[in-house]
Amino acid sequence: MKKIGKRPRGRPRALDREEALETALQLFWRHGYEGASVADLTAAMGVTPPSLYTAFGSKERLYQEALDRYGASYGSFTARALAEEPTARQAVERILQESVAVYSEGPAPRGCMLASGAVTCAPEHTKVAADLSRRRLAAISAIKARFDRAVIEGELAPSTDTEALAAFYAAVVQGLSIQARDGVDRDVLETIAATALIAWPRPPA
């Protein structure tokens, strides 16, 4: 008697790498590295774990690529402001305004992916936390470099502590991220941003 084999249920969905990466970015952005499990990621992508690992190698590598994508898209406003605005003060004002706009975007505010991705984590994920720290410090260095240029151009006094000033505005941006995630009204966030601008050093005499 001839045996009739079971019919296959159909092919698993093929993984579209760009679409999968955007899906992963959104999950990581909202839930952090540890909060988005492989099961969550594959369910959202509609693929199997082997497909995910074939495309990205590991969850950690997927997260790194998602951070790269974030930095080149949603989080690119800082680099663009530093490069495009004619003065350092205008660059800072734009960074603060766009931080509020991006971080408070609804219906569920997400804050900054770099600020909230993995502030603390399990020991086995310390490399992830270290990578996030490196990226945050690189952003501060970029702001400092723009302030150093402002000193050379005469916008800021030679005595300006550009490192402290850059760290200050980075701290404001990170604070905006946390408060946005906590649901603080956008009007309040905009007031915080405007208040931070009052601290901008007076022009050199």
Account of the 3D structure:
This protein is an all-alpha fold. The protein is 67% helix and 0% strand. It has ten helices and no strands.
Quick summary:
The protein has 205 residues and is mainly alpha-helical.
CATH topology of the largest domain: Tetracycline Repressor, domain 2
Assigned CATH superfamily of the largest domain: Tetracycline Repressor, domain 2
CATH class of the largest domain: Mainly Alpha
Helix content: 55-70%
Number of helical stretches of at least 4 residues? 10
Q: How many domains make up the 3D coordinates? A: 2
Question: How would you characterize the largest beta sheet?
Answer: none
Order of helices and strands: HHHHHHHHHH
Low-confidence stretches: 1-8
Give the overall silhouette. Answer: elongated
Distance between the termini: 100 Å
Main structural class: mainly alpha
The radius of gyration is 22 Å
* Average pLDDT level: 88
Strand content: under 5%
Descriptive labels:
Tetracycline Repressor, domain 2; disordered N terminus; Arc Repressor Mutant, subunit A; 2 domains; mainly alpha; 205 residues
Detail the topology: elements first, then pairings.
Layout: H1 17-35, H2 38-45, H3 49-56, H4 59-72, H5 77-84, H6 88-103, H7 113-116, H8 126-153, H9 162-181, H10 186-198
Helix pairs in contact: 1-2, 1-4, 5-6, 6-9, 6-10, 8-9, 9-10
